[in-house]
Amino acid sequence: MFETSRRKLLGASMIGAGTVLNGLGARATATELNSKGNIMLNRISDLPQGLIKAAGFPLVEAIHGRRSRRFARGAEIPDGPLAYKSRHQPAPLSELEQMLLLTTVAGNTGWSNLIPYNRNYLPNMPNYAGAAGGRSFPSAAGFHTTEFFFTDDNGVYFLPTRDMAASRARDSSGETDLKAYFDEHKSRIVKLADGRLKTPAQPQHMEMHNEWCANVAGSTLIIPVADLAQHMVLALCYLVQNGACIYDDVNNQPIPGLDRFKHLVDVENPFPLSYVEQLGLTEVTVEISTSCYAGMLMLQAMGLGGWMYEGINPFSILGASGDPAVPGLGFRFEMIADQPLPHVTGLDGVFEGHCAPHFDTMRAAVESVVTRKFGSGGPFNAGTEGPYKESDAIRGSAAPIGDEFVDCVATMAQYIQDKFGRFPATVPAIFTLMYLQAHQLDTGFYDTHFSSNAYLKTHSEHDRNWGEVGAAAPPGPLPDAEPG
Fold first, then answer.
1. Residue 117 burial (C-beta neighbours within 10 Å; 0-12, 13-18, 19+)
2. Is the whole-model pTM more than 0.70?
């Protein structure tokens, strides 16, 4: 009987537009892939068919087949209309699966192209970006203040990529050695603790519709965390570079001392502080959400279950819930008078926010941002390599930032710190909201309760394509890496 579905036909018709590699046959070999595409797979030993299929999975299929598939192997819904108990034991992702997912969410993908033109900057180019490297997700003006933590059965880890130079796994012809690419990222992973991050299935720590499925045994939970304090310093730099400043709309007063910078910024028409901070919060929310969405699409290609969600208390994740039995990631926080929520500032020595107490003054935080832009490895350092034919000339042409510029930004930032006892004033200094969970899918649940099309062919063929699931090796050997 002819059973080719409309979905299969659509996927086949779009395969040229939706795949990383061209001309895939049903039984393509690593050698064929190497000769036809830009991703070289044949240097991976024991190359699984699942990786070949994931590399050639149509984008349109990933988008149209995307669903939250929460039922992991080992899971149970004890009662109700969708009651089901898994017949399988929890099973972790393989190391290869985990690295493919991590690099999809947080990977360095080459040099950023930067913002090339603003007529008001001539003869210079805009100096907005915070990082020279590009990643697998976008960031407002190239600020890139997010880093990534993750947890599995073996431990809690930190994967820093925001200031990573362009991957060396791509050669001059544009081909990427996927094994070298994975190895580059794996070498950056820092193990922070043994065992899975504790997220109790209790109302104060978790939305109770997730108690049966969130951060379960066998799963990998990826946690993007943004330094929103740094993002706001970068935003203030952006404003000053474009002749703008802020006023304190919370207390309905101008920022003292800004009059002396009226030749730099328009002190008569300032932006409201709370509006600028809400923009910053929105921008980092987009940043962490699109990183998770990239991973969500990859789950479809790999045949893994999982979903992106916010149903675990972010303060429990960071370690600021107030419950000593739930240390989370161990971030520093303080309770500020008359404010109901903890002010989280950073993880000492690992991921420190651009605010007190990690910086003695806000001027020091501003200077740190300027160094990130123009210092060694920065996007506007002439010695940093890049995608241009004359990278040194292009990078060296960015609008400079001098002491007076720093004074102006620091005046606003220090006012916020002094007036509100924190920086930023109205939004978190450290922000996490969206997580991505990946797990081995129990298709039996869907076969029992759904009529059809509850999962993709990649899910039904997962074990055949990737090999029998079992205990995964930890992502190591783990280095004594610099976390920044």
1. exposed
2. yes
